[in-house]
Design brief:
The structure holds 2 protein chains of 2 kinds. Helix content of chain A is 47%, strand content 0%. Chain A is mainly alpha-helical. Chain A has one domain: Orthogonal Bundle (Non-ribosomal Peptide Synthetase Peptidyl Carrier Protein, Chain A). Chain B is of the alpha/beta class. Helix content of chain B is 40%, strand content 17%. Chain B has 23 helices and 17 strands. In chain B, the strands form 3 sheets. Chain B has an 8-stranded mixed sheet, with helices on both faces. The chains are: A mainly alpha, B alpha/beta. Chains A and B meet through α1 and α2 of A and α1, α2 and α9 of B.
């Protein structure tokens, strides 16, 4: 299965966080996102696991401060790890 | 009947319907929840989740699936792994919460001590007893002090088997031990009416143990299940809650050609239908018929809705391999009219709501038409492969029941008899002549232990002919039946076509010389038969015998009970000025001399209370 593109990842993140499609651009700080909580964190890990076969630990996610960090962690195409 | 309230768009629910993708549901949960909260007339419930592991994900998913069933939960969550302490040490937050339902979310991780290697059988047996006693002490306290219904997980199996296949057979092995505990939990469920099992042993097998357990989630979050496994868990739980609130479906409406057999009976002829063991697809149709027959045997009403000439349609069931027969169907609509109209007629003839129907048709255009025009009807996307039809019905848990009582087993007979009555009625000049010819007899009496389950079931499932729509648990019904502060009546009705079973329930709360109606309901299968008059006659006689001078009728309007809006005025009650729009009060002064209202029902003898203290 091909890995998610950056755009696809951001759209799925929009959905997880209940944002309008196209809201997230990548530079956002996680602490500024209203619905960024433990439930969203688990949905993100599941998404990365399902779509990108990326095994991410919660500790790694907690260490992220921006959406761009998450993109790198989830090994999204076009994001250097 | 067109609903005046905004019709909820089922498109929103597609992500929650068969075939579901758990990852999609997890991703969309926020927007799904927001949309689902926009529904009107949600039924509130209070659920305490007592977890043997972390439960935030379970709560989040359960909320979603309950909202999809029209139930709006408020939750209490125990602290991590405090499922027994919160009960045994009476956590005041839990006690103040006053749950309607307590869900005990334990898994194999919560077994306190597994047997030692080579432990003798007698000691293993002792260990089973101790483990059961530990759980039972929690359940007993919930029942006696919180009065809530309990939904308890049985045990899933660990994904690792240190003893290999011996895990299944050796009594000291973990798998064998868990199977024994599951058997004990089941035994407890059979003997306790307010205790239901959430069968995670089955669910985990269905999902597959490797997908069920998410090891990383256990080590990082102490989640016993992976997030994707939480989806089927929540769906299963929501189905149990739905059944408790009487929201399960009642009738399966089936297309015929390429749904119950392969081929077109009108074109191909009965002899050429694909049905039977000599053809792989024919065998799949046979198995689907067997599944449908099993549903019918346990009380699900069957109906046909098919574009066919009726003679051809009925002839299809004369196929020698057909398990289903014409007489298995309570309503048979085979014509060339649009199916939504036929579906309306089926609901009307059965006196049930459109929201009690499930429609199965292999034709996607027919499914889309019914789904579009009748959003209340459940229309699963069964596809066109008959081998998946039953799977789609199972997945949606449409027909979940919290118990099976004798009356369920006879339901199809009742409804078939109703169809006979309708035909019979057509031969009479007036309705009174028809009623008289039915030779009806009613057995009406105070609540009896024999009927406790059926009485409770009616109280919790009747929506239309229900003046107050109050719900009571079986423990509460039992308590009311013993309380002299209440007058209780059940009513059974029989006629020349058969026994309709227990069809009406009335509870009156007595205060001095006044009786206030607390519950008054009747099954719609005996509408317009004067059964409500027979119940009223008996109520008045009880009041006279107990010195009660006044009956206060209560009517609480809901979306579904409009049919009884004129009930009290029809009986000669006067509306009280203190009534409000959502809580009407009506008064009836019990006369010394009373003329019986029912003309066509003979009531069998019953014991009346002999004094005011009775």
């Amino acid at each position: 299965m091909p890995k998610m593109t950056r755009e696809e990842f951001l759209l799925e993140m929009d959905e997880i966080l209940d944002l309008k499609p196209g809201t997230l651009r990548g530079h956002e700080k996680l602490e500024d996102l209203k619905n960024w909580d433990s439930t969203a964190l688990i949905s993100l890990i599941t998404m990365a696991e399902t779509n990108n076969s990326a095994q991410i630990s919660p500790d790694q996610v907690v260490g992220c401060s921006t959406v761009a960090d998450l993109l790198r962690l989830a090994q999204v195409d076009g994001s250097s790890s | 009947m067109a609903s005046e309230t905004k019709t909820f768009q089922p498109d929103i629910l597609k992500a929650l319907r068969f075939p579901t993708t758990p990852a999609e549901i997890l991703r969309k949960r926020q927007s799904l929840k927001k949309e689902l909260l926009g529904q009107a007339n949600l039924t509130p419930t209070r659920i305490a989740i007592l977890g043997g592991s972390t439960t935030a994900e379970v709560k989040s998913m359960l909320e979603l699936f309950l909202l999809a069933q029209g139930i709006q939960p408020t939750f209490f969550e125990s602290g991590y792994n405090r499922y027994s302490e919160d009960v045994l040490f009476q956590n005041p937050d839990l006690w103040n919460f006053k749950p309607d339902i307590v869900f005990v979310h334990t898994t194999w991780h919560n077994v306190s001590q597994f047997p030692q290697l080579m432990e003798p059988e007698a000691e293993v047996e002792q260990r089973v007893r101790r483990e059961m006693a530990r759980f039972a002490s929690v359940w007993e306290k919930i029942h006696t002090e919180l009065g809530a219904l309990i939904i308890q997980n049985n045990f899933d199996l660990p994904h690792l088997r240190p003893l290999g296949n011996l895990e299944a057979s050796e009594s000291f092995a973990r798998v064998n031990f868990l199977m024994r505990l599951n058997a004990e939990f089941a035994k407890y469920a059979r003997s306790h009416s307010r205790f239901l099992i959430n069968d995670i042993h089955y669910l985990s097998a269905q999902v597959g143990l490797n997908n069920w357990h998410g090891r990383a989630y256990w080590y990082n979050f102490h989640m016993a299940l992976s997030p994707t496994a939480t989806v089927p868990l929540a769906q299963n739980l929501a189905a149990i809650v739905k059944s408790v609130y009487g929201k399960s479906k009642k009738c399966l409406v089936l297309d015929l050609d390429n749904t119950l057999w392969g081929g077109i009976v009108g074109d191909d002829g009965v002899q050429n239908l694909i049905l039977g063991r000599d053809h792989p697809v024919g065998e799949a149709f046979l198995d689907f018929q067997r599944y449908v027959k099993d549903l019918q045997r346990r009380g699900i009403i069957l109906a046909v809705c098919s574009k066919n000439d009726i003679e051809n349609a009925k002839e299809g069931f004369s196929h020698p391999d057909s398990i289903l027969k014409v007489e298995d169907f309570s309503v048979f609509k085979a014509n060339w009219n649009p199916k939504p109209g036929n579906m309306r007629e089926i609901a009307r003839e059965l006196n049930i709501g459109l929201d009690s129907l499930v429609f199965v048709d292999d034709n996607p255009a027919e499914r889309a038409l019914v789904a579009d025009q009748l959003p209340e009807v459940a229309v699963p996307d069964v596809g066109s492969d008959v081998s998946r039809f039953a799977e789609a019905l199972e997945h949606e848990r449409y027909f979940e029941v919290d118990r099976v009582v004798q009356d369920d087993l006879k339901r199809a007979v009742y409804y078939n008899s109703n169809a006979q009555r309708s035909t019979y009625q057509a031969g009479f000049r007036d309705y009174g002549e028809f009623l008289a010819s039915l030779e009806m007899t009613a057995e009406i009496g105070s609540f009896s232990a024999v009927y406790l389950e059926r009485t409770t079931q009616l109280i919790n499932k009747t929506n239309q002919f229900n003046l107050t729509t109050k719900r009571y648990t079986s423990a509460e019904v039992e308590s009311i039946s013993r309380d002299p502060g209440f007058v209780t009546l059940y009513g059974r009705l029989a006629d020349r076509f058969g026994d309709n079973g227990l069809v009406s329930v009335l509870i009156g709360r007595v205060s001095g010389e006044t009786l206030e109606v607390d519950v008054w309901l009747m099954s719609c299968r005996v509408l317009n038969r004067e059964m409500e008059l027979a119940m009223f006659d008996t109520l008045v006689e009880h009041c006279q015998a107990r010195g009660i001078r006044r009956i206060v009728g209560v009517y609480i309007p809901t979306k579904k009970n409009n049919m009884v809006a004129g009930h009290y005025s029809g009986l000669g009650f006067t509306r009280l000025t203190e009534s409000s729009g959502d809580h009407e009060l009506w008064r009836f002064d019990v006369p010394q001399s009373y003329s019986l209202r029912t003309r066509f029902i003979r009531r069998t003898a019953q014991t009346l209370p002999t004094s005011a203290n009775a």
